[in-house]
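BUG: 3D viewer hangs when loading the predicted structure for this chain

Environment: internal workstation, default settings.
Expected: structure renders.
Actual: progress bar stalls at 90%.

Input used:
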Amino acid sequence: MARAHRPDVAVLDLQMPGADGVRVATALRDELPDCRTMIVTGHGRPGHLKRALSAGVRGFVPKTVSAQRLAGIIRTVHAENRYVDPELAADAIATGDSPLTAREAEVLEFSADGAPVAEIARHASLSPGTVRNHLSSAAAKLGAENRHTAVRLAQAKGWV
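Structure tokens produced before the viewer hung:
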């Protein structure tokens, strides 16, 4: 729809049906550089905010924001300013950065639905042994006894 309508501001849900709002924001940034993006979310975990900002998102707000306040934030983003909900920002600062490398986070994300190592390897374009190494390293960094617990811990922090 953004390609067809060329919006000034795209308001995205972090967890859209069949898509990740941060990935959509990245695609919009690359394909429609004049379109500013913001995310409205019911899952405002600190890692999500950091990923969104890295993707060029200009606004990040909880779904509980009033319609009147949301309209004002859209205008703020349209004016090329940034708005991040203060509570979400404070939580992100308090949580700190993810200890995971980008590849470890990616592999953990692929394993979130219980996919076998061979399938994760195909999706990540890695060998099964490399996938096992990344999963083991991620679990160790998160103090998890296995990859399933590591995924849950990383998801709770918003790192995947």
